[in-house]
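User: Here's a chain of 258 residues. Predict its fold as tokens.
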Amino acid sequence: MLCPFCAEEIKDAAIFCKHCRRDLKIQQTLPEKNRELAAEVDELKRQLSELRSAAVHSPRSAQATAPEISSNWLRCAAVYWLLPVALLLGAHYLMIIKFDMRPIFLRIVSIILPALFGFGLLWFQRARPGALALTAVSVAVASVGGMLAVVSKIDGVPILPSNARDWQETLEYALSIGLAIISGYLVAQMISNMLATPVTPVGRFLRAIISRANPTGDPEQLKERVIANILRQQLFTAIASIVTMLVSIYAGLKAVLS
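Assistant: Prediction complete.
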């Protein structure tokens, strides 16, 4: 036979070429290895096809998914919507109605409590920004609306504010509660970034964009760009959390301090 490297005539049983001194054993085993790998790939494809077919045609899996999702939504709604609203209403009743404390103490509690639940939204639930916005708005509206209803029931006054100043204070109070939830979420995101845990969708999105923009570039340069974008994200998150918390504190304490 001919040597596959130098094309010189050699014996069929040779394991290396006497002309170019190349090892022929590897060359002889490559076709066999390729056939084995091809057989393994075909077997894996067959198994994957069977698993996909079983998943699509299995009614049990579809039936089990819906209750599980519903249960998760109900649990999250109870913990991150019903519980903060109930705590804020309870704090309002105890501090204002029962013990007649200064309103500033209620406003402070109304900033700390929502911030803790906002922190948990990201840290424990990995909630998306849309879920955060919905939670912040609904908790703020339900809490302030419930407080107005309690005052109306006890004092016999209209539920809705009667003048522009009362409307302004009510909206600022609701804004303070909503921003406190958002600031707690941002603080959790900032801590997660500092701990280098890729839990934020924004971080994963940035990494994907950078990798696609430079798929075959210098690895060190790509690494530097990834680190720079992560640092910019961390700085933006830190600034946003600080600003949001300051606005929440200002909106919540403005009325009681003026």
